[in-house]
Each structure stands twice: as structure tokens, then as C-alpha cells.
């Protein structure tokens, strides 16, 4: 595989180029792509042209670049989150209709929660979450639920990292984080007041497969007021509904065949 003078392969460079796009920056100039990907302008320009020819990138009339429909098509064909999203959508829509704020579904991906779906409403409280957006596990309600049920190695890795503060209420002390994770496992939900924005509260519950594995987190973002905790029962009911929907399909929502209960 061809490598540059710095030792990175073509695949490495293409991945860095694609990772330069984000929910906040879906359209970029070639110069911006080169800078964000750490590539020479000539290299970025050549790769953009090649990826555009294959439909993986596309150009706007002003020559700015965005991810192409072909990329979305290929990703959607075999997405490990597709079965989970399809099973969850009816319940996510019902949840959204009840809370009339933000309802979202997130999965564990490395040190982050990756949001695979979000429903919102005009006039809803501020929420930084976007579909295909990420937040650190320690900072969001969905992330905390997923971290609480992750393996010890994942938990220790996060606990030994610097914990970024979004507000004065974000959990940034490892010992406090340990206590919160233990409380989540005991109570099976989390209530985060102002962890991402001081005006918003977030609540989340785990979504389990038929075998009991936590495969996602279902959460809402609502105003930080006395009504916030009243959303816990409907969150739990919708999570049970998603579990039932997953149990009738071939996948457990994480892309892995669910073996179901052990044989007698």
C-alpha cells in the first residue's frame, strides 16, 4: 500500500479526510479539509477529486465539499445500528410525543456516546446533541448509562483520562464518577442537571437486548425544573418496548446475533 513521506498510507489519509467533516462542519473547502486532516493541500485536492468521482464526496456549486450520497448509501447498507434504530423508532416517537422536548438514542463507541437518532421540537430547551454526533461518556446522561454498564477496562480507561468540564456541574472527579456509575447500576437511570448546559436536564435509562445486554441508552433532554424526574417512568416503559422489539428480531441491536436464553 502506497505510503507518504510521513509513513501514513492512502487509507490513513482518506480516513483523516473523511473524519474532518462533523455535525458542526458538514461542508468544507479543500483548504479547510487539508488543514483539519493535516494533509498537504495538493494531496487533499487529489483525494477529494478521486473520492468525488466515486460519489463518496460531492461538491456544491461554490466548489465546497460535503459527504456524498454514495457514502451514506454504503454505510446504511450494513450499519450495526440499523436494526437497533428500526426497532427503537416507534418508541422514540412515542417518547417524543409525551415529553415534547428532545428524545434520543445513543450507543457506546470508544470513549464516547454516539447518537444514532434524535427527535426534537420547536421551542425545546437547548440541546447540543446531533444525529451522528458524539459526547464524552462522563458528560452526558446517555454516556453515563452506557459507561455504568460497560466492561471494567472501559470504565478504568475513562476514569484515568482528563474529564472535560462543559459546565460547573459536569462530573470531572474520578471518585465522584465511580459513585455515580454505581448509583446508576443500582437505580437503573440517571438524572443529570446542567452537565452540558445550565438550563437543561437530561435523563437516561439503559436499553437491553433479549439476553439482558445493555446495547444502547434512551434519553431525554428537558428543562431543568421540578418536572424533570417525572419522565423516568415513560423512559423505562419505552426502553422495555424497545427490548421486546429487539427480542423478536435476529439481532440484539449491537450487530451481534443474540443467542437468547440458554438451552435446557
List the helices and strands and how they pair.
Blueprint: H1 10-19, E1 27-28, H2 30-37, H3 41-53, E2 57-59, E3 65-67, H4 69-77, H5 82-99, E4 102-109, E5 112-119, E6 134-136, H6 141-148, H7 152-159, H8 174-187, E7 190-193, E8 200-208, E9 214-223, H9 232-247
Antiparallel strand pairs: 1-3, 2-3, 4-5, 4-9, 5-6, 7-8, 8-9
Helix pairs in contact: 1-2, 2-3, 5-9, 6-8
Account of the protein in words:
The chain has helices at 10-19, 30-37, 41-53, 69-77, 82-99, 141-148, 152-159, 174-187, 232-247, and strands at 27-28, 57-59, 65-67, 102-109, 112-119, 134-136, 190-193, 200-208, 214-223. With 264 residues, the chain is α+β, with helices and mostly antiparallel strands. The longest helix is centred in the middle third of the chain and has 18 residues, at 82-99. Residues 250-264 have low confidence and may be disordered.
